[in-house]
Amino acid sequence: MREAAMLMVDVQQRVPIPLDVSLSCGPDELLAVFGPSGSGKTTLLRCIAGLHRPVRGRIACAGEIWTDTESGLHVPTERRRVGLVFQDYALFPHLTARGNVMAALGERRRRERRQEADRWLAAVHLNGLESRRPAELSGGQRQRIALARALARDPQVLLLDEPFAAIDRAIRTKLHDELDLLRRRVHIPILLVTHDFHDVVRLATHVLVMEQGRGVAAGPIETLTSRTDIPWSRHALDAGSVFDGQVRAREHARGLADVQFPGGSLLVPDRGLPVGAHLRVRIPAREVILAVTRPEGLSLHNILEGRVAAVAQDADEQLVQIAVGDGRLLAAVTRDAVNRLALAPGRPVYALIKSLSIDTYGPHVAG
User: Fold this and answer.
1) Total domain count for the chain?
2) pTM for the structure as a whole
3) Pick from 51-55, 81-85, 227-231: least confident
């Protein structure tokens, strides 16, 4: 990927809020910045937007340097092509949906601004609501206005600060689907700040985990969710492996779909997706059973052959990473199971997974 097309950030400070983060995010990527409240996520976004000047560091996007503390360069917010969506949306209450988006379009002729605003409102499925004021709309609809306004500025990067926090689960799922499709349409880096791992699983291509202002882990979501060396993974995420897969076949009579993923293939409940469709799957670690001999006469459909890659010690349970093909799968087992099965790196094992225990998201559009 060309460096000129990327967002690149390297910032440090001790006060007023500790921050020590290095990241990069390219077009068509969505980097989820994940961590508890007070971990520095929003401060990081404010640095990128130009709303906060870090004590030390450098920020560049699409070949333009926005912050360079060594040379004293700090481009003000209004001169950065940044689309920013706040948790409370920050809409003008006296303006209509159309008026809020038009306000982001600068000094263009009014007719041109109106046409552009309507185009972006249509892109976020607000056709017919252009003349409504924010108070007349639902939380999900207000979120769409904020997103349309951010994108209307033709940004080089889109920053989303807890955009789903005030939205109920059913509407959030729909907005997830829309944002996933929109990401591939705009072709710019997107950063999503969240403390909800459901947002991460559904949307992220990459993840940055923050604790007390520090970036403690980063990487593609498939890699990060299968690691055993991150303490937060077992508690905060209820550990589980995430993969992007493709429907290879549908077995209508059995109500199942055959999904190809980096570790082989899985049978999952048939959601009606056509052959060739892409989707995301998550396999909770506590739903994976391990065996050292191939079992027979079981009702479950998925038996994957692999080898133990790592075992993480924990007071309550052991987290075992299994190398399956080109993928990594997590299994949560008791300490007794580790001892009885002699689970250690290199040990051949079989991973048993019920089809109904596999979470599916999508359709996930291939990038």
Assistant:
1) 2
2) 0.89
3) 227-231
